[in-house]
Design brief:
This protein is an alpha/beta fold. Helices cover about 25% and strands about 15% of the residues.
Length: about 240
C-alpha cells in the first residue's frame, strides 16, 4: 500500500535526520512538504488536495512551523522531538497538539509521558541506508571524525580530537561535512570516534549509527545509552538494525 506523508516544513529544511526519513517514506509512497511560504491554515491546505495524506509529520525543523488547525484534522499527526533534552518542558507542551510525540533519546519517552503526553514513543536515531552502500571503499583513514567541535559544549571533544589528529591519519575534521560527505568519510575510516557534548555525555546520536552502518569500528565514551538500546560492548553486530 502506497502512503502519502505531509511534512510540515519547507523542502530545503529536510536535512540531517529529516532527510533520511523523507527518503524512507518516499520509498513507500509520496512525500509532500508544506511550510510557511504556502500559508498557515492546515485545514485550507488539506481542502486543496485531491487526495488527503495518511500522516502529518512535524519534523522538528530549524524554524518550527505550527499551522492553525492542528487539533481539528482527522488525520494522524506526529511530531519529532530530536533534541528533546533542550527545553524539554516547552517541547512537552507543544507536543500535546499532536497525536504522537517521537523522542530520539533513551528515557525521554517516560519524561514526556510523565509530563502528560499519552502517546510519547522512543524512536532512536538511525542511519540512512542509502548513503552507506559503497562497501568496497578503501579505508585510508586510521580515525574518522564528523561533527561540530566549536562552542562551549564541546571542550572535551576538541581536546580528544586534537590529540588524535597528532597521532593518527584523519580526515579534515574541521570541515563541516554534508551527510553524503560524512558517509564517504566513515566508509573510508578504519575507526570512527564519537565524543558527546559536555552536558549530555551518554546520549546516542546519528554518528553512532552511521559509524556502524559504514562498517567501521566505533569508539565512544562509557557509560553510553547504546547499551540501553541492546548494543553490547565488544560484540560485533553482524546484522545492522539501525538502517532506515
Amino acid at each position: 500500500m502506497m502512503a502519502k506523508v505531509l511534512f510540515l516544513c519547507e523542502p530545503n529544511e529536510l536535512d540531517k535526520e529529516r532527510q533520511g526519513y523523507s527518503r524512507a517514506f518516499a520509498k513507500h509512497g509520496e512525500v509532500i512538504c508544506w511550510g510557511r511560504s504556502r500559508g498557515n491554515n492546515l485545514l485550507h491546505f488539506l481542502e486543496s488536495l485531491q487526495e488527503k495524506p495518511d500522516l502529518i509529520l512535524h519534523p522538528d525543523a530549524s524554524l518550527p512551523f505550527l499551522p492553525w488547525g492542528m487539533t481539528q484534522v482527522e488525520i494522524p499527526t506526529v511530531c519529532f522531538q530530536i533534541d528533546e533534552f533542550d527545553s524539554a518542558e516547552s517541547r512537552i507542551r507543544w507536543s500535546m497538539l499532536f497525536d504522537y510525540a517521537c523522542v530520539f533519546h533513551v528515557g525521554y519517552d517516560k519524561v514526556f509521558q510523565k509530563g502528560g503526553h499519552p502517546q510519547a514513543v522512543l524512536l532512536p536515531h538511525c542511519a540512512d541506508a542509502t548513503l552507506f552502500q559503497n562497501s568496497q571503499r578503501q579505508r585510508i583513514y586510521d580515525v574518522g571524525w564528523g561533527g561540530n567541535s566549536e562552542g562551549s559544549l564541546y571542550g572535551r571533544r576538541r581536546r580528544i580530537i586534537l590529540h588524535l589528529a597528532e597521532h593518527f591519519q584523519m580526515n579534515e575534521w574541521r570541515h563541516r561535512h554534508s551527510q553524503e560527505e560524512m558517509a564517504e568519510v566513515y566508509q573510508s575510516s578504519k575507526i570512527v570516534v564519537h565524543v558527546n557534548r559536555d552536558d549530555h555525555t551518554t546520549v546516542t546520536g546519528m554518528r553512532h549509527f552511521e559509524a556502524t552502518a559504514a562498517g567501521a569500528l566505533l569508539i565512544t565514551g562509557i557509560p553510553t545509552d547504546l547499551t540501553r538500546l541492546g548494543f553490547r560492548e565488544g560484540e560485533r553486530e553482524d546484522t545492522p538494525r539501525t538502517h532506515l
